[in-house]
Amino acid sequence: MRESILTIPVNEVFEPKEGCPVCRMRDTVEEHICEYIMGAAMMEPDVRTETNKLGFCTMHYPMLAKQGNRLSLALTLNTHLAEVRRNVFDNKNVFASKTKRADKIESTCFVCSKVDWGVNHMLKTVFTLFEKERKFKTLFEEQEYYCLPHYHMLAAKSEQMPKNARAEFIKTLNRIVSDYAKVLNFDVSEFCDSFDYRNAGKLHSPEMEHVRVSPQKTVQFLTGRKII
Prior knowledge:
It contains 12 helices and no strands. By secondary structure, it is mainly α.
């Protein structure tokens, strides 16, 4: 398959072979969306209509703030807050619960919706490349791991693949995730054992770095998000 605007970004997130490539895919899309919202899109009426309606989740508000454009963030917050007031507190419909209306607003996020759309489209390319490109299939097989949330996502969305190609895809995916989970489990067990007085000082040796960081790596594997 010839390189295109669809295949290039997918190949780029798979090339490092470190961590979960779907996490990198999500992070890339997420960063672009946050930059876009706090930049050019801030004055686009159709985008502002959506952000006013959907707002943002607790994960993405800090990411927007990190863009450093306080005025853009404040303007977006101002019109979204006006929308919340209008829909939740100023709505005189006696049959509509304020609590339910508030829950509906709080459970939506403009960034999440755009990231989901972007990742879903990129995953379609992943499935096509795995089926048709030997080079990409090898790249997929050589990944360090796929985090648990994205393991479930890949398994579910791969239903769109032809039956034989999907069977090979799932087999490969299961092997990678299972092997990595086994290694993590061993490393975390060693981390716990290092606190036994008989192993005093063992954890601090240079060759034990993978054990020292195993709790953080496990959380990242289980959640798809890094912890500080």
